[in-house]
Amino acid sequence: FNSLNHDMTLPEFKFIWYMEYSHRMWGRAVGLAYILPAAYFWRRGCLSRPLKGRVLALCGLVCFQGLLGWYMVKSGLEEKPDSYDIPRVSQYRLAAHLGSALVLYSASLWTGLSLLLPRHKLPETKQLLRLRRYAHGTTALIFLTALSGAFVAGLDAGLVYNSFPKMGERWIPDDLLAFTPVLRNIFENPTTVQFDHRILGIASVTAVTALYLFSRKIPLPRRTRMAVTSLLAVACMQ
């Protein structure tokens, strides 16, 4: 209000306040959904020793995620006397908050599916090992693409260019490496951040398509084939 929105009304403030409040309450509910059942099943002796370690790690990650969220929001409330721009959170902390959320979600899903569904005992052929490596590499690329999206959001980089596939009238914009040192552009130059996100997005869709086409050449269980096909569908929709 002091820096930018001098004409904000109380109902308008309440709207953004309740968005933040709901997000915090939802996060705390997630924490309880982890910790309370974990304590119950632990006390009942339902957890094996390896699963205990995984449950502790997941509960710790939930708490760490909440701490990161507070640390991120704090950066948006700090006074920046050298900046007259729109108040916003640090793009580095936003990326860390999103990244930890993705790790938490993926680990939870992996743990749940490993308990609910029996593991397929497939012959370790060269093609299957290569498919597994491709899948892991594609996962890493998608994760990196999502993190680059956090930098786009943190810097409002999506507002710089709104044309595709070109950025404005050029394939490679003039201000791509405007900052010094050069490495700073990757994390702080809105043009470079948007450019990198586009390249990573295209690379992710290409990698998912290649993974799907390669999987068609290998005899796979129905569940695995459905997973790869769903991955391609979601990538195209995204």
* Mean pLDDT level: 90
Count structural domains.
Answer: 2
Series of H and E elements? HHHHHHH
What sort of overall outline do the alpha carbons produce when their principal axes are compared? flat
Euclidean distance between termini CA atoms = 35 Å
Rg (CA only): 22 Å
Number of helical segments? 7
| Number of strand segments | 0
**Helix/strand/pairing category:** mainly alpha
Account of the 3D structure:
- The protein is mainly α and 238 residues long.
- It folds into two domains: 1-117; 118-237, no CATH class.
- The protein has helices at residues 10-44, 49-77, 91-116, 126-155, 184-188, 190-215, 222-237.
- Helix 6 (190-215) packs antiparallel against helix 7.
- The longest helix has 35 residues, at 10-44.
- It is flat.
- The two termini are 35 Å apart.
Keywords:
flat; metal ion binding; 238 residues; mainly alpha
Give a brief description.
By secondary structure, the protein is mostly helical.
Write the layout of secondary structure elements.
Layout: H1 10-44, H2 49-77, H3 91-116, H4 126-155, H5 184-188, H6 190-215, H7 222-237
Helix pairs in contact: 1-2, 2-3, 3-4, 4-6, 6-7
